Amino acid sequence: MRERNDGKSADDILRNQFTAYLVTAVRNRKIRYLQAKRRHEQRELPLDIEDYAAEPRDETDLLGNLSLIEQLEDFRLQQALRQAKTRDLYIFLAKALDDRPLADITAELGIGFHTATNAYHRMVRKLRRELGGGGK
């Protein structure tokens, strides 16, 4: 039968210190995980289809002859999109504007899921940096 840990013997002190270390390590890991998850969720841009459906149709007719990039009013955004790699830009626009799942995009392009995810987040960071929104 186990003896009660009274914290007076050297073994009990060591056991208590180790238990405290484990509890602290697990708690810190949980905090880091939740912080990383929150940062990831903040990077994602919400996309409401109803907002785009409510746009006037006559404006799109006027802009129909221009490319998507030329339709943007922000010059810094235009420059950032023009400087992007073609594949990264395609992945970003397919996910952000067309709301396509990355699994579909990867199947179409024949690349790995992590490659597409990295390309998407690289574009998000680049756009934030170029537009002064911070980011790494």
Brief description of this entry?
The protein is mainly α. The protein contains eight helices and no strands.
Q: What would the keywords be for this entry?
A:
Arc Repressor Mutant, subunit A; mainly alpha; single chain; elongated; 0% strand; 136 residues
Explain how this protein is built.
- The chain has 136 residues and is mainly α.
- It has a domain at 68-136: Arc Repressor Mutant, subunit A, CATH 1.10.10.
- Helix content is 70%, strand content 0%.
- Helix 6 (86-96) crosses helix 8 and helix 7 crosses helix 8.
- The radius of gyration is 25 Å and the shape is elongated.
- Residues 49-63 have low confidence and may be disordered.
Number of helices: 8
The helix content, as a percent range, equals: 55-70%
| Count of distinct strands | 0
Please state the structural category. mainly alpha
Describe the sheet with the most strands. Answer: none
Query: What's the SSE pattern?
Result: HHHHHHHH
How far apart are the first and last residues' alpha carbons, in Å? 56 Å
CATH structural fold name of one domain = Arc Repressor Mutant, subunit A
Q: Per DSSP, what share of the residues sits in E-state strands of 2 or more residues?
A: under 5%
- Which overall shape is indicated by the principal axes computed on the Cα atoms? elongated
Average pLDDT works out at 76
Name of the CATH architecture of one domain: Orthogonal Bundle
Q: Over all CA atoms, what is the radius of gyration?
A: 25 Å
Low-confidence stretches: 49-63
Q: Kindly report the name of the CATH homologous superfamily of one domain.
A: Winged helix-like DNA-binding domain superfamily/Winged helix DNA-binding domain
Oligomer class: single chain
CATH class of one domain: Mainly Alpha
